[in-house]
Amino acid sequence: MMNRIFRFTYLPFLIVMGLVVGGALYQTISIVPFWEKDITMFRNYGHWGINYFPILSPLMSVLWLVLVVTGIKADVPNKKLFYTANLFFLLIMGSTFLYFAPFLLTHMGHPQTQLSDGELASMLHTWARWDLVRQLTGLIPFGIFIYTYHRIGAVAARPQIQWARP
């Protein structure tokens, strides 16, 4: 039963994680540099992703929890690698909910923020550098999850040898 739930959950998790990672990379590479050039863009920026990340991130988190719980009993070819990816994923999600998302929710799109442009620009610059590190680090578990998904599929597709009885 756990194997079936694990296999059923894995592909939707990969799809949702790919959407979240892709959206976050897009934001980091194409939008954040504009914020850094002009702090008023950041102050007046609408909450991009208001209908994207708040829907996909909790869904991804629930699917991930199901994978972790069912993965204990599932036939994963290299469990150490799978749980290494889970450790990286936990690190990324923890940092997102503790630092990265609160920073955006507190300062982005709030022109009445009491911080001066210099202070906010400095904070944004630090946030942007760490965000780039987080996004690049987030590719590690995504790649490992894809690899382990492939390995699980290869194990499931392996033909079973039936030995003839004498």
TrEMBL record:
It comes from the Bacteria. Keywords: Membrane, Transmembrane, Transmembrane helix. This is DUF1772 domain-containing protein. The chain crosses the membrane at residues 9-29, 49-69, 81-101, 132-149.
